[in-house]
Each structure stands twice: as structure tokens, then as C-alpha cells.
TrEMBL record:
Residues 69-279 form the ABC transmembrane type-1 domain. This is Spermidine/putrescine ABC transporter permease. Keywords: Cell membrane, Membrane, Transmembrane, Transmembrane helix, Transport. The chain crosses the membrane at residues 20-40, 73-94, 106-131, 151-179, 200-225, 258-280.
Amino acid sequence: MASANRSQAAQGLSLIAPPLGYALLIMAAPLLTILAYSFFKDGYLTVIREFTLENYASVWADPIFHKIMLRSLGVAALVTLVTVLLAFPVAYFLSFAVPAHKKSMWLFLITIPFWTSYLIRVFLWKVILGYNGVINSGLTSVGLIEEPLTFLLYNVNSIVITLAHAYAPFAILPIFIALEKIDRSLLEAGRDLGESRAMTFWRVTLPLAMPGVVAASLIVFIPVIGDYVTPTVIGGGKIPMIANMIQAQMLDLDNRPLGSALAVTAMLIVAVFSLIFVALNRRFLKVRQ
């Protein structure tokens, strides 16, 4: 029996070895390279391969880094909140209101934004929110405003709107999957016991859907922290986030060691916040149970 298990394990390992090796090469190698560079010294147009902790000391002592990191975390949290709040009703509608034979069509429609480049969608939002954009032109043409509104673009609100739209499908799909896994008999039992639809949702549906909500939150929060296109295009470069700071060090200033230290520090901070969020969610579920 033991030999059979070892044989099956060996077969499974042989099957996953090629994609595992590819994943390690594509994902782990760049991360290890950035980690190594973060401990090197910067020279003029070159990297001095001597171990140092000066890069991390400079990062943690830099008040600009503190300010930009806090802004990035705040914007990412706000985008995550808005995206999940907008995605949950859509996922709930798909799971509970749409007939089973039409769900695949609705999911297909949700994926349509992926057909176009992310950069194109960002520029389209700039056209929509711009000084002479779609919104201002429409409001001016119907006489609601006399002059174009200037607060629609180049601010945090426009960044949040653009990112929430860009990452909405990523939030809808995991929430939808979690809702689909809920046993409908549990909801019927709650209503049979005299609970209203609102209380059944609060006590049964929402706790059971929380794994999907947590997955959606992490799927949105983590990449938003690393987004530098939207703050540049929609924010006009006036509201830089941590990714813009890393890009400036890596490319504009050619300081790869300091840029790598910034990237590693940002990854660690995001990892800590993500673990805290998951832990709080588990505690919330235990209290609800």
C-alpha cells in the first residue's frame, strides 16, 4: 500500500513538475532578484554588489515614503470597499435571480471589459471625466452647468472610480462562486423559522459568502497597491502612489537598489495588512457562529 502511494505521489509530482518549474522561473526568479538588489549599493549607472542595509534604512527614515505608503493603503482600501460593495449586489443577482440556463451568458458579459487593454480603459475614463469629456459635455448641453466641472479628474475620487471599474469583474466572480455554493435549504429553513429576508441574509447568506468577499477584497486590494498607470493618467501625476515611487527610483533615477528596497518593503507591508484582514475576518465569523 505504501509503495502504491509513493508511486502515485511520484506520478503526481512528474505531472506538476513542468508548470511548477515554469512558475518558479517566471515568478520566484524576479522576486529573488529584487530581494538581492535591495541589499546592494548604488553606483553611478551601475550596481555595486556589496551587502548593505542602507537602502532599508533610507526607506524607513524617508517621510515621503511614509506619506505615499499611507496614501496608497488608503486609496487601495477605498477602492476595495467601493468595488466589493458594487460587486456584491451584482453577484447576488446573478446567483439568486438569474435562471440557471442564463448564468453563463451573464458571466460572459461580465468578462467583456477584459477584451480591451487595461490602458485603453484608463484612457477612456480620462475622456469621460475630462474637462471637455463626456460628462461635462453632456451636462453643458442640457443646461445643467454653465462651465465644465473641474473636480471630476486629477483627484483621488477619479482614481477610485477608474480602479473600481477596472477590478469589478475580479470581485464579482469570487463572490458569485461563494454564493453559488450556499445550500438554498438553509435559507428556506431560516424563513420557515420566522426570519425576514433581511435577517436571513444577515445571519445566513452573508456569513456563508464571506470567503468569497475576503477573496474578492484581497484580489482587488493587492494589485491596486501596485498600480501606477491610473495615478499617472487619471491622477495627472499629482497623486503618486507607492508604485510610482518605485518606478521613479528604478527608471527615472536609475537607483535599482533603493527601488528594490521600496518594493520589498511595500510587499511586506501589504502582506501584513492582508494577514490582519484575514485574521479579523476569521474572528468575525467565529463570533457570528
